[in-house]
Amino acid sequence: MSKSILVVDDDPHIRDVIVYALEKADMTTHIAKDGLQALESVSRLQPDLVVLDINMPEMDGLDVCRELRKTSDVPILFLSSRDDEIDRIIGLEIGGDDYVTKPFSPRELVARVNVILKRMQARVPAADETGQYQRGKLVLNSERHEVHWDDSPVALTPTEFAILKGFLGQPDRVFDRNNVMAQSYDINIHVSDRTIDSHIRHIRAKFASLGCEMLIETVHGVGYKLGPCQ
Asked: Which CATH class for the 127-226 domain?
């Protein structure tokens, strides 16, 4: 079944290049010319992925992403004419899945889209038909972007949510630090071990406050694994 991709960019030439490349790869495309159209289109079309330009007038791509992440877990591939590490970090931290800098190769863009889609598809078997993952007292709902422990809500950042979802997608696997982030984002920037450990520490602390002392276990010399969640 053809994947549905929403292309959001205020430059008609860029939109045409992206649409041509994606349709040549047998994907179905829709377009939005600005941020407000993007939000309406995601709600109406429920695309499989959004290619989202950051540098748009009025409502930029980062603001669009923040709004989408309140209600949607749709994968987002950012585009930007600025090769700025801060933009990349912010985009990934607020819920983006990958980042491509203009000018870009259409073939590279299609390849990155395919990688994101394959990764999302690989996680589907762990969830039920409503997009819900459950292990013991832990429940994560992808559609509503919600996490609960023993019926109590847990507020996670987009990065923490993505990391936890990665663990739930393969609940018996031991992840090294690179795996932890690879399960969450297709990152093309360096992320230190200290940063990854910090994310894990914050997740643990939030669940510990609800009585779950070790949601994510340390496997010494290897990395991390999901705990029993009982």
From this structure: mainly alpha
